[in-house]
Design brief:
By secondary structure, the chain is mainly alpha-helical. It is 72% helix and 0% strand. The chain starts with 22 loop residues before the first helix and ends with a helix.
């Protein structure tokens, strides 16, 4: 039996820079990634068998909107402070967010924000947090946002946002609250990137 020569098998992985991506490739990457996130959430939940009626309950009513909007507002306020007080190289994501939102029409910013919020919250809060709790879930959430890992401040902010999303899910008992908060954060930040005037 012939043995496989692992030395001749080379995987060439390298960091892709934002300027190497075109718009179409960036969108395909985003939508495929979110489809995989959604698939992972569904597979995990098939084993966990959560109470979906409870998870997606709208019984808290306005509490969902209140918690979601207040949390999003707090995150956006902190982001505004960071943007104004921290050097831009510390908050740099390689230009991905600017490429993603910079030239999109408003409806597409809303669609992207909704898809990302729903898929990521279903996986992280709906599936993973049930098994790992908010702390370890937030570590994983920060780790998958790999473009921020080179800067401790941004990694800490992503971890804190994730932990806060997990906390408001626990407080309200419905996944709609972190989905709404995540959507508002992404949508408003996307609109800022799209419509801000350069100074």
């Amino acid at each position: 039996m012939k043995k496989f020569n692992f030395k001749s098998f080379k995987v060439r992985l390298r960091q892709v820079k934002a300027e190497e991506l075109n718009d179409r490739l960036l969108l395909i990457n985003l939508y495929v990634t979110q489809a995989l996130v959604l698939l992972a959430a569904v597979v995990i939940m098939l084993f966990q068998r959560p109470d979906l009626l409870q998870m997606f309950s709208i019984e808290p009513g306005l509490t969902i909107v209140l918690w979601g909007a207040l949390f999003a507002g707090a995150v956006l306020a902190v982001d505004l402070l960071v943007t104004n007080w921290v050097p831009s190289e510390v908050t740099d994501d390689g230009g991905i967010n600017q490429m993603l939102f910079g030239n999109r029409p408003l409806w597409h910013i809303a669609l992207l924000s909704l898809v990302v919020a729903f898929c990521e919250e279903l996986l992280f809060r709906g599936a993973i947090q049930a098994a790992w709790g908010p702390y370890w879930t937030s570590i994983l959430f920060a780790a998958i946002h790999i473009r921020y890992l080179q800067h401790w401040l941004m990694t800490g902010l992503v971890f804190s946002i994730s932990y806060g999303l997990g906390w408001i899910y626990i407080q309200t008992g419905t996944l709609w609250t972190p989905i709404l908060a995540h959507f508002l954060i992404d949508f408003i930040m996307g609109c800022i990137l799209r419509y801000r005037r350069e100074s």
